[in-house]
Structure formats: structure tokens, C-alpha cells
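Journal club prep — side note

Before the paper discussion, L.F. wants everyone to see what a predicted structure for a comparable chain looks like in C-alpha cell form. Sequence:
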Amino acid sequence: MTTRRRTNLRQIAQKLGISASTVSRALRELPGIHPETRRQVFEAAQEMGYRSGEFLAPKRPINILTVSQGISYQSDHEYLAGMSSAAVTLNMSLISHHYRPEECRNLLRPEFQPRALTSGQIDGIVLIHRWPDEVAAALRKSLPVVSIVHEYPGTDVDVISLDDRSGMDELVGHLSGAGYRRIGFFGYCPEMTWARTRLAGFVAALFRRRLEFRAKDIVEVSLEEALSEMEFTGGSALSRVTELTRNGVDAWIAASHMTAVSLHHHLLSEGFKVPRDVGMASFHSPRPSPASAAPLFTTTEAPSAELGVAALRRLVHRIEGSDTSRRIILLPCTVHAGPTTRKVAAKH
């Protein structure tokens, strides 16, 4: 099977006069490929009968509704950018709507729904961010639904997410290699899928490296703090961080970007020098622009745009009926070392 796929890639490359790696990247909707090249690759793949199982566009045009919820649009743009780049070659039209948290349940009321949804013109839905379970379940009863990051137990909503466990393992490995020995976890929230899986990965990574696990070094935040799109200050969670840091925690891993921003500011305000007194790392923090005053963290880097692309591909399978079983698809993370941790000791 592997040999046949490689042969097909080479044949497409030879037909177009480009490299096989360019063909592969175009079919996977990875960045750095000119739109015209991507279009030619998809057309040649269709014409030559390339059958990777997941990259070919549906035979008929389909309409996809993406719905996100939150205070701002800022956290949506990378997902939507990935979907927008893939939509043309996947023979899709995208309709995007954004709801504030208090408006989420309105999506089930016809008078508040996008007109394309009420008129039956939508073939599938992508959910971005955490939606009420009953909303996800109700939508899935009538249409294929794929969720980015958040899981909905008890439904067969597909999930496209990050490999939180392996990403957390790499973060703990980085901190361990830099000499940190008592690592705390900040940002656990039982209501959030990503907080649960990242905590599970954190605990497993400690045991793998024979680092001591202390349940008291796990700091829980409220649901409001976990969902916050702005820095939060004060509160019992951050007070607990101060106490634990003074009592021996020498590094922290924050479960998300905004918990990391809040943690970093709190540590500095309490007089701790980062990373001299205490190191800290984040999960899935973006790199700030050169003009930004935002801190640069040691963090996992994750392909947010590729999450959007993968969500559309999964919908193709559902809509075309080629795969009806529920899937959770995880994309890999890598660690980017920033100035909030000491350098990893060189191996001799």
C-alpha cells in the first residue's frame, strides 16, 4: 500500500514537472504552496485516480457552516485561515458565524440561525471552541458535525484536536532536561477537554521520567478563568501558585495561553524572577509579533491552521458516507524553547 501511494505521488509530480514533496504538501493543504500549484495538483490527482482516501475533494459542491463562540474573533482566525485555504480544492463553500457565550443556545432556535441552516442548504458543521453539550448533540442529529479541540461525550461528533499527551511529554522532558525537578501544573479545569487531557499527559510524563508526583502541585482554575480571553488576576488559584512556588515548585506548566499569560504576570508581580527563580512553560501559545509586548514563552507549537483543514477533510468522509464511525484525530505538537525556561543542559 505504501509503495503504491509513493508511486502515485511521483506520477503526479512527473506530470506537472514538480517534486513529489510539493505534491504531498499540496494534497495535505500545508502552507507554502502557491494556490495555482495546489489547484493543478488536485486536478491531476482526480484525473489520475489518486486514492489516498482523505485528500480528494467530494464530487459535488458542498456547503459547510463554521460556528465559533467567544468574546472576540481573535482565537478563530488561524482555524478559519486553514479552512479557507482548503475550501476551494475540497470543493466547498464556507459560511462562518460567531456567537457570544451567552448566545450559544440560540443556535438551536430557527429565528437566530444562519439562513442557510434553516433553509436546509448546509451539508456539515464545524464547531470551534466549547459549545453546550445539548447544542452539539442536537446539531448532530440532523447533520455531520466535527468539533475542533473539544469533545462531546455521548455523541458521535468527530473531534480534531492536538496530541496533548505527547505535547505535554515533550514539555516535561524539556523542563527536566533544563534541570527542573519539582514541576507544577496550572490551569486544570474539569469541564474542559483540553485541560483534562493535558493534565493526564503531565502526570504520565512525570512518572516516565521518575519525577515525583505531588497532587498538591496541581492548581485548578474556575471555568470562567479557563475560558477567559483576557488576563485574569487575583483569586485563589494564583494565590496557591505563590504558596507552592515559595515552598519548592521550581517550574510551572500552564494548560493554555491565557492561563500562561496570567501566571507569568502573577509570578513577576510577586517578585519571582523568570526563569532564574522559577521556570514556566505554556501549552499552545502563539509567538507574539515583533511589535507586541506579549511575553514569549517556552511552549508547544501546534498547527492551528491544519486543525481547520483536518476538520474539513473529516466532514468530507462523513458527508460522502465513506466513513460513518466516530473519530478523534490528533495532530502532533513540537516544543519551542523561549526565555521563560533555562537552557537544556548539553549531553556529553
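L.F.'s comment for the group: The chain has a mean pLDDT of 87. Keep this in mind when we get to the figures.
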